[in-house]
């Protein structure tokens, strides 16, 4: 059973309120809450829960803390990848699609509002600082689902504020500061939620799910059926239509979709013991691969990333299935990674660790000279762990330098990551963390995931959102886009929402 679905379904079933997917940083922050439900698949397991009452307390704690903390750094991009090599071949269960490389295209029909701030010229070299704009309003949204750079500007998908049922909406911006709602025909999105946006060769792909969870049982025995996977395509960000045939996703949960030079790749499962990979040229039609058992025995997936020469897939081997409450068995699995040149033929890589047991890879982030994978380890403080790689094939452990949850200071000279809240644009790796005793935000940049440089702030620095838990506007989500960041902030209890365009300085 998928853990992201488990958490969202439990919240919806118990509280009739689905606040959206929990993010990695939130999971780490609530890791100290006792009697917590199992976290994201493959991540460190938390103390035992005790039946229905414990699950209810855990859900209430999650929702309360989520209202204060809510961190998500979700970025997509084309990235550095492994060199050419042959590997075991996965076959299609349907007609093979002709793969072509994705290139953003299309033109939004709605004319965006005049830019409040000139669009900065993206820099391709090193970032040496960040200049913050003054905050502006982001109108009428409940929760941002994704923001991507597209068609010379930006497009956002978010839940519309104040509706009785789930209803996504779309906004566009030419500068990242002034956002205009798009007049989208919502009949294509009946009671649906979007999880991600992906630029394709013919426009945009949106993916998510529809409806409410159907759950049975209570406490430890509670189970929820997966909500139906939904896929939509659009040539312009305004006219959307559902993908006609999604039968290959029946009973499935998607953990990630990425676009690369050989087309789109989606990963997930149709049950804990049934990992799945789907491929498509444009997103309009999909084929499910038949996975070689020798390569994917006991595999569980968590993320997939496109690279300049292929794809990298993160997950684990033999990890414990998540539970809805009660006793969580110790994780005896091992972190795992697979790489591919075309998304169809996959080779298992190597993830090094002293013991190798009780580990899992979660998300992969890519820089110009290397990659970082954030995951879990049963022997790590707080359950967090990270690895680096220069080619996507072989991964080495890296120390955690975050100053919370009892994390020890790394020894001098030991490579470390300053924060596990990471995002990237395929060239720059950005880490966001707590910067000072008054809950300020700090950011670091790296090209390889090993050497990090803290970035000084300039511009409207008196308006910068604080780390959640402080006063005033708190940072909610941050997206790396060409030439810098788009940052969303929230006031206490979501009473106000603002957006900043943060420009990278050479």
Rounded Rg: 21 Å
Sheet with most strands: 6 strands, mixed
Overall geometry: globular
Q: State the CATH superfamily name.
A: YVTN repeat-like/Quinoprotein amine dehydrogenase
**Mean of residue pLDDT values:** 75
Instruction: State the low-pLDDT regions, or none.
Output: 1-86, 93-120, 403-407
CATH fold-level name? Methylamine Dehydrogenase, Chain H
Structural class assignment: mainly beta
Provide the number of structural domains. 1
Q: Quote the beta fraction.
A: 35-45%
Q: Report how far the terminal alpha carbons are from each other.
A: 46 Å
Secondary structure tally, helices: 4
Describe this structure in words.
The chain has 4 helices and 35 strands. By secondary structure, it is mostly beta strands. The chain has one domain (3-505): 7 Propeller (Methylamine Dehydrogenase, Chain H), CATH 2.130.10. The strands form 8 sheets. Strands 2, 3, 32, 33, 34 and 35 form a 6-stranded mixed β-sheet that branches. Strands 22, 23, 24, 25, 26 and 27 form a 6-stranded mixed β-sheet that branches. A 5-stranded antiparallel β-sheet has the order 1-17-16-15-14, with no helix packed on it. A hairpin with a 6-residue loop joins strand 16 and strand 17. The relative contact order is 0.17.
